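Review form for a predicted model. The reviewer records the input and the model, then writes brief findings.
Reviewer: anonymous (R2)
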Amino acid sequence: MPEAVPDRPGTRGLPDLRALVAGATAVLAEAGVPSPRVDAIALAGHALGVPNLVLAMAPPLPPDFAARYAALVERRRLREPLQHLTGTAAFRHLDLTVRPGVFVPRPETETVAQVAIDAAQALVAGTDSSAGVPSAAVVVDLCTGGGPIALSVAHEVPGAQVTAVELSPEGVALTRANADRLGLAVRVLAGDVRDASLLAELDGAVDVLVSNPPYIPPDAVPIDPEVRDHDPDLALYGGGADGLEVPRAVVRVAVRLLRPGGTFVMEHAQVQAAAVRVDVDATGAFTDVHTVADLTDRDRMVVATRR
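Model under review:
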C-alpha cells in the first residue's frame, strides 16, 4: 500500500472549507443576496480571522468553525448587512470600522470623495489659480455618518485641515474611533446642518465643502432590506416631500462657509439631479453648477464653484 502523504501546512480541512463556502453561496443566492459567493468567502474569512481570505491558502479549520460559520451565514441570509457581521467596510484606501446604528459607506460615494480629494490636492500642491490662496486646504464634510469621506480626505491629502460634522451621537463616536484607530487628524463635531450658526468660525474660510446628506423622499422606501431595515432613518430620509430639506440646508451652509473659488460637492439621488442644480443655482452664489456621474454612469452629485 502506498505511504500516506501528510497534509501540507495550511491545507488541512481545505476541501471542507470549499464545500462549506459552496453551500453558503447557494443559501445566500436563494435568499437574494446580491453577491452570494463574495459574501460567503468574506464571512468565512471573518470566522477564521483571516481578512481577504484566499481559499487556496486557507488555514486549518478549528473544530467549531462550521457552527460559527453557519450562524453568520444564517444572519446574512436574513439580510443583515455583511458589514455589520464583519464589523468593517472598505472605502477607497481605508478599512473602516462599522457599527449598527450608523450608515454603512457605499461604493458610489467613493466618487464623491474623489472630487473633494482632487480639489483639496490641487490646493495643497499649490496649483490652485485663485489669487491669494495659500498652499493648504480647509475641508468640511457635513453629514459625515461614520466619516468615510472626511477620513479619506485626511488620508489622501495630508496637508488638509479636515472638519467632519454629524448629527447622530453614534456617528460622531464612530468617526472619532475610526480617526483614532487610523491615526488621522480629523476634527469631529456634533452638529445640525440646519443650525444657522454651525461652524460660524469658518465663515468664508473653507476651500472644499463636501456632503453625503440624507436625501431619500418619504415615499421612496428602499427595496434592499440591508438599507431599509438596518441603516438609520436619520441617515436616509432627507425631509420634505422631495427628500431635499436637509440637502437644501447643506447648500445654505456651503454659501456661508466657502471662500470665493471654493469647491462644493454634494451627493444626491439620480432622479434629483435637475432639482438640486436648480437649488444651487438659485442661491446666486455659485458658478459652473453641474452634475457629475458615478462609476455606474448614474447622476450622483452636484459640483459647483463659489463666486
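Findings: The chain has two domains: 14-78, 92-306.
Further findings: Residues 46 and 223 are 27 Å apart (CA to CA).
Recommendation: see findings above.
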